[in-house]
């Protein structure tokens, strides 16, 4: 296949309390709420999108907050960690900030030459900050976070699997290349050619328990593709023995979904038309936005959603 992905488009996770999760991602992490909508497959639940000022692909962390959700269990067959990119020299600032917010960051670890600060969101979702000198120039939102240390977007994700194959081959076919390997061979690093969200680590943990869905787990990881290549991507996935969906219109992008060989849900999402298709840039996230096919249900949907102060 001639097409390849430059990296991650967005990551979507399951959460519980929408107000608590908003306060964490907007106030503590300093991301902008760029879209306030609903889960199109379960309209009683918000879909909240946090990103840079414009909501560019590669910066967008999205959440489905189910107020009554029980905790999931991170394990094999899941995204085991979501990593954000920050400038070199920023981790001490972030350690203090996260401690003040009660996020209890772990110790900084060295991974393939990068300093990595692990922590969790309020539902226990494993997150990381990766400090690198080549963090790209940002388009930052106004936030309480100092611009010099602010999150630039995604660095990547870690997939927890019972073995590295055949998912590693799938990633290679998607345009990733293996760039590193841990000494014990259990972590393989794959990189695409983008400048944000370009890393996927494949972590082999054959004895680890199977992951269980719930609050604090990733629902899916989406990769960026071009609209004109959608047919080629579906054929590529079918040729790999997988069962992709048809193209689904999500209003702000068009998507193909597929479960890879160990059941991690992958999405292949177009960069167009973007979050400004139905809101002005400066007004992003200020109101509940619904795709036109849900507008006739607005009154009932709004009545079913919990209060959310932004």
UniProtKB/TrEMBL annotation:
Among InterPro entries, the record links this protein to: Extradiol_RC_dioxygenase, Glyas_Bleomycin-R_OHBP_Dase, Glyas_Fos-R_dOase_dom, VOC_core
Domain VOC intervals: 7-132, 153-271
Q: A single Pfam family, by name?
A: Glyoxalase
- Whose protein is this, by species? Natronobacterium haloterrestre
Q: What is this protein called?
A: Glyoxalase family protein
